[in-house]
């Protein structure tokens, strides 16, 4: 099922800071949150949730239940912005959320740290590289 669309990191931040109903959901793993850092949503009313799309054992079977625990309800029309490392898992999360009635659901292009750059490293693109708020978990 199609999700609402893709947003650049700046567009995602603009939505979060302009719509008090919007929620950012970081779908990376706990290890990524701890090692790489997380978006800092304090300037957006702390409207961020951390729900793994994948766990060490595979797909997170409680993903949709955990979205509900984060305050989302199917059919409530609350914008939800999904973020992962590079913008791949967040597409799958946005599709699953949309199919379950959450959203409109959006994907953040290039994610938190983007694809691997020409130097073999990540971090050239995405949320952090665009200078959006983030912190160590």
Q: Can you walk through the features of this model?
A:
The protein has 137 residues and is α/β, with parallel strands linked by helices. It has four helices and nine strands. The protein has helices at 9-18, 30-36, 63-69, 89-99; strands at residues 5-7, 23-26, 38-39, 48-50, 54-55, 58-59, 80-83, 105-108, 134-135. The strands form three sheets. Strands 1-8-7-2-4 form a five-stranded parallel beta sheet. A hairpin with a 2-residue loop joins strand 5 and strand 6. The radius of gyration is 14 Å and the shape is globular. The model has no long low-confidence stretch (mean pLDDT 95).
Short key terms for the protein model shown above:
about 140 residues, alpha/beta, two-stranded antiparallel sheet
* Biggest sheet layout: 5 strands, parallel
Secondary-structure-based class equals: alpha/beta
Mean pLDDT: 95
Task: Give the tally of β-strands.
Answer: 9
Instruction: Please list the strands of the largest sheet in the order they lie side by side.
Output: 1-8-7-2-4
Order of helices and strands: EHEHEEEEHEHEE
Measure the end-to-end span.
Answer: 33 Å
Task: Using the alpha-carbon principal axes, give the shape.
Answer: globular
| Content of β-strand | 15-25%
Helical fraction: 25-40%
Low-confidence stretches: none
**Secondary structure tally, helices:** 4
Q: In angstroms, what is the radius of gyration?
A: 14 Å
